[in-house]
Amino acid sequence: MDKVVGMGWEGSVVYEKDVSRPSPDGWARRVVTHREGGAKHRFTITGRADPFPPGAKLWIEGTWAPPKGDYPPDLKCDVIQVTSDLEQEGRDGYVGYLIGLSGPAVADLRAQNGGDLDAAFDNLDELVASGIVSGKVADAWRDAWAAGCEEQLDLAGLAGKAGIKASEVAKLYRDLGERTVDALVENPYGVMRVADVDFRRADLLAAEFGFGGDDPARVEALVWAAIEVDRKRGSTASVEEDLANNVERLDRSVSLDAVSEAIQRLEDRKEIDVVEFGEEFYVQSRSTRRLEHAIASKVSALIEHGVWYQRSMVERHLDFVLEKAKADGTYVPLDHAQANAVIEAARSPVALVYGGGGTGKSTLARYWAGVMDINRSTVERVAPTATAAERMGEVTEGMVFKNRERTISLFLGARADGSYKLGPDNLMPPNTAVWADELSLASLDLGAALFSAVGPSSRVFMTLDPNQLGSVDEGAVGRDLIRSGLVPAFKLVGGGYRTGAQSGMAAFGEAILSGQMPDLPEGVARGGILFIPTPERSAPGVVLDLIREGVEDWRNFKVICPTRELLGKMNGEIQQLVNPGGRAIRRATPNADDPLDRVVPRVGDLVRHCRTNIYEKADGPGGVLVPKVLNGHTGWIKAVTRDGVETVMGRAQNPVLYQPSEVGYLVTGYGGTVHETQGSQFKRTILVLGDEGNALANRQTLYTGGSRWRELLVIVAQRKTIEMYVRSAGAENRRTLLQERLQHCFDYRRKDAAAHRVGGVGEKMRSSAAVAASA
User: Which of 129, 287, 334, 701 has a CA 20 to 30 Å removed from the CA of 375?
Assistant: First the structure.
C-alpha cells in the first residue's frame, strides 16, 4: 500500500506528548511512544478535534502492535486503512486488533484450539492460568464478545482457517463496514473482488457456509477467477473459448452450461461485457471497458478537436531550438526523418515516438520540449515509475522546466484513497504539454488516469520501446496506440545516440526480436558487448572478478538478473567484496519468501527502496500525498542513529531518514531485476542469466536487460541459456480491446463530423497519420 496509515478506535486514546497545536481546519496531531519488552514503538495519531472525543475518526501513521493488557477499553473498531506492516504481524493480526492481542498470540490460540476461536474463548480461564494471556486481555476479550463482536471474531476465525490474511480481512471491513458479515454470509465469494483473495481460498471459506458444486454464486466466482487468470498475463479481455478453458482448469466438475449461464447473469447485471470484434467474442469486465473507453474517447477527441499547429511555424521554432542547442553545446544533429518526426509530433495534440535503445527517442523529446516552450506551453515530464522519471531528469539536465520530473501518479496528485486530484472533473491547466516517457510500463488504469486529466488545449507526447517488457498490470497502452494507425506515431531506427556510432546495441536487439542468436563476442568486447560463457553456479565468481578489476569505480557497474532469487545471491556476493566491514542495520522481520531480504544492508551499501511508496503526509484524508521516498529509488546508507537509518536517496541525493518501522523497505542495490531497472541506463551493465527456465526466460527479457548500458554490456551465461531465451517469444500476446475501441471512437467522430464540415482538422489528422506510416 502507498500510505502508511493504520486504524482508528471509537473512544478515547491515551497519548504522551503533544507535538502540535490544532491546525485552523481542526486537525491535531499527537505522537505516542510506547515501550514493550525493551522495544520502542512510535506512531502518530491525527484527529479532527482536540482533545479527541469519543467517536472521533482517527488515523494512525506508523507501525504499532497493541501490547498485551494495555489495549484501549473500548474495542469497537472503525477501520480507516491498515498498514502493510500489519501483514507482517501474521494473518491473525486483525483479530488481535479487535480483541486486544498481538497477531502471533491469536495464531497460537487458534493452533492450540484446532483453529476454533470459540474453543479458545471457552478456555480463557485456562489460558490465563497458564500465562498465555493476561487477565486484562481475557477481560478485554469478554468485553468484545459482550459488545457484539462475536460475528467479527467468528468470521476472522473462518477466514484464517481458509488461509485469508489479516490484511485482507481488514480490507473487507474497511470497504463493507457494518455490512461485512451479512454480505459474506450471503456470498462469501465477495472476498475475491473486495480483498483480491484468490478463488481457492475463497472457495474454502464458502464451503464453511455450504456453497459448492454448480451453485450460481460459485460458478460466477469461477468466471471472475478465469478472467483474473488472463488479467495477470496482462490481458484486458478474454476470448470466450479461452475463458471456458480457464474455468475448466480451475474446476473440471463445473459444466459448460453452468458457465454460460453465469456469464449471461453477469452480463445482465452489467458487471461484464461480451463483445464481438472480428470473428471472436471477448469477455471483459465493465470497469476495464470504462478504462479503455476513457483513453479511446480522449485520444480521438484530441486528434479531431485539439489544437493543431501550422507546420511552417513549428519548422521555424525547431530551427531556433537547434541553433540554441549549438550555442550551449547540447546539439545533436537530426536527419530528415528525425526532424520530420519532431515537427509532426509538435504539430499534433497527441503523438508518440518509438524505437529501440539508443535510437534517439530522448533526443527528439528534448527538441520537442524546446518547441513547446517557445509556444508558451508548460512542459511536464512524467513516467510510470520513479526509476524512469529519474532517468528523464538525467537526459534533460541543463534544460529549464517549471516543475521537476515526476511519476504519473504524483503529477496527477495521488491521494490516500487511490483517487487523483486531476481527472475528468479537474483537468490539467490549459496549455500543458506532457512528455510521458517509457509508456510501455504504463498499465491500463494509469494510462486512463493520465488521459482523463488532459484538457482540450493540452498536448501529450509519448516515447516508448514497445518491444520491452510491458506493465506488470493489465494493458498495453503504447502498443495499442501504435497499432491503431490512427495516432501520429514515428518509428526510430539505427543507433549511436546513447552508445556511440560503433555500438552493437541495435544489431543485438534486432537479432533477438527476430528470434535469432545475436553476435556474442568472446575474449574482447566488440561493439560494446562481451560474452563470458559461464554456468550459473560459477556466475558470482565471474562477476566479482569483473568488479574487482574495476574496483576503483565499482559504482559504475550494475548487475541485472531476470529473477529475484539469482539477484539475491549476486547482491550478497558483491556486498562481501566491496563492503565487508560495514555495520549491518537492524530492521523489522524480513519477508522470508523474498530472496532480497536474505542480505541485510550495511552502512555504506548501495540500497534500493522497494515494495511500496512512503509519504510524508497528506492534507487531511482527501489531500494530495507528499512523497518521502518512492518504490525504485536508489541511494546509499550513510549512518545508523538512535532515530533510525540515515540514507541519501534518488538522483537529487536527498537525505532520507528511515524510521525503524520503514527500514524493512531497504534492500541491497548492487543489482536489480530486469523489470526494476527498466527505464534506467548504466555505464557498465553485467547481465547474468540463470540456467533454469522460468516465466521470464524469453526474448523480451533478454532484449530489455540487454539495452540498459552506455559503454559496456557483459553477458554472463551459457550459450544454451541464451538460445532458450531467444526461442521463447514471451508473453506479449496480451489481448486488449483498446485498439478496436480507438477505431470505433474515430469512426463515430468522423461520421458526426461529416455532417458538419468537409476536410479541416480531420484531413490534418489523416495527413499526419500518413506521414507517420511512411516514417
Answer: 334
